[in-house]
Amino acid sequence: MVFVRGHRSSYDAWVAAGATGWGFADLLPFFRRSENAVGRVSDLRGVDGPLTVAPASPPHPVPTALLQAATEVGHRRATDISGGDEEGFGWTDLNIIDGRRQSAADAYLTPALARSKLDVVTDALVHRVLITRGRRTGVEYSVGGSLTSVGCSAEVVLTAGSIGSPQVLMLSGIGPPSQLHELGIEVAADLPGVGSNLQDHPVANLAYQAARPFRQERTTMERRLACYAAGRAWMARTSS
Ligand SMILES: Cc1cc2nc3c(=O)[nH]c(=O)nc-3n(C[C@H](O)[C@H](O)[C@H](O)COP(=O)(O)OP(=O)(O)OC[C@H]3O[C@@H](n4cnc5c(N)ncnc54)[C@H](O)[C@@H]3O)c2cc1C
C-alpha cells in the first residue's frame, strides 16, 4: 500500500545507462495522469487520476516521533518525497481509500469492465506469446487445462511479474539461445539478458518496545507501513 515514486536522479540514471525516454521529465506526465494525490498541491503531482494516494490520516504517534527524531539529529525533512525532487525523511503516500487498499484493478480495471471492447479471462495460464516472422501475433493460454489462443493486431502487454514475465518470454523463444536450445525452444529473438539479473530488495524491520503506551486503534500493518515509509525516505537519502 505504500506509494512512492523514485527520485528524479534514479530515472535520469536510467537514461544515462541508455534507456532513452525513461527520464524523470519523460515520465512525469504519466505519473501525474495516474494519480489523485490528495492534499498535495504541486506541479509535480496529479490530482485527477484514478489512483488515490495520500499520507496516513490521522498520523500515528510512533512514526511522528520517528520523523521528529530524524529532524532533531540533523536529517533533512521532506514535505513530499514522491515529488521526485526532495531527499530526507517524510510521510509517504499510501494507496488506501476508506481504510481499504485500492489495487490497480480497483483503479483501472473495474471502472472499464463495462466497455464492449474489453474481455477479461480469469484463471488463465499464459503459455507463450505467439510470434510469426519476428512479430507477435497473439497469446496462447489455457483455462481449466484446455489450451486456446487469442490473436492480436497491436501490442501484447506482458505483466506476469518479475519471475513470470521472463519465463513467458523464454517460453516464447525470446531469451539466451544457449538456454532455449537446451530446453528445445525455437529461438525467436536472441536476447541474452532475459531471465537474468534478478535482484533482491532487502528490508530490515526493527522492533522496539515502546517506553509508554500509545493508542492501538490502528492495525499493526498501518503502523508498519508508516514506519516503512520513514525508512524508505532514509534509504532514498543514503543511496543518493
Ligand atoms: C511483500 C511485498 C510487499 C510489497 N509492498 C509494496 C508496497 O507497499 N508498495 C509498492 O508500490 N510495491 C510493493 N511491492 C512491490 C509490488 O507488489 C510489485 O512491484 C508489483 O506487484 C508488480 O506488479 P506486476 O503487475 O508487474 O506483477 P505482479 O503483481 O507480480 O503480478 C503478476 C501476475 O501475473 C501472474 N502470472 C505469472 N505468470 C503467469 C502466467 N504464465 N500466466 C498467467 N498469469 C501469470 C501472477 O500470478 C500475478 O498475479 C511489494 C512486494 C512484495 C512482495
Give structural notes.
By secondary structure, the chain is an alpha/beta fold. Helix content is 31%, strand content 18%. The protein has seven helices and eleven strands. It folds into two domains: 2-110, Arc Repressor Mutant; 121-190, no CATH class. It has helices at 8-16, 24-34, 61-72, 104-109, 161-171, 177-182, 220-239, and strands at residues 2-3, 35-37, 51-53, 93-94, 96-97, 100-101, 124-132, 135-143, 146-151, 174-175, 189-190. Helix 3 runs parallel beside helix 7 (220-239). The chain is elongated, with a radius of gyration of 22 Å. The model has no long low-confidence stretch (mean pLDDT 89). A hairpin with a 2-residue loop joins strand 8 (135-143) and strand 9. Strands 7-8-9 form a three-stranded antiparallel β-sheet. Strands 1-4 form a two-stranded antiparallel sheet. The longest helix has 20 residues, at 220-239. The chain binds flavin-adenine dinucleotide (FAD). The site of flavin-adenine dinucleotide has 10 residues, from strand 7 and helix 5. InterPro entries: FAD/NAD-bd_sf (IPR036188), GMC_OxRdtase (IPR012132), GMC_OxRdtase_N (IPR000172). Pfam families: GMC_oxred_N. It comes from Actinopolymorpha pittospori. Belongs to the GMC oxidoreductase family. Keywords: FAD, Flavoprotein.
Topology overview:
Elements: E1 2-3, H1 8-16, H2 24-34, E2 35-37, E3 51-53, H3 61-72, E4 93-94, E5 96-97, E6 100-101, H4 104-109, E7 124-132, E8 135-143, E9 146-151, H5 161-171, E10 174-175, H6 177-182, E11 189-190, H7 220-239
Parallel strand pairs: 2-3, 10-11
Antiparallel strand pairs: 1-4, 5-6, 7-8, 8-9
The structure holds flavin-adenine dinucleotide (FAD).
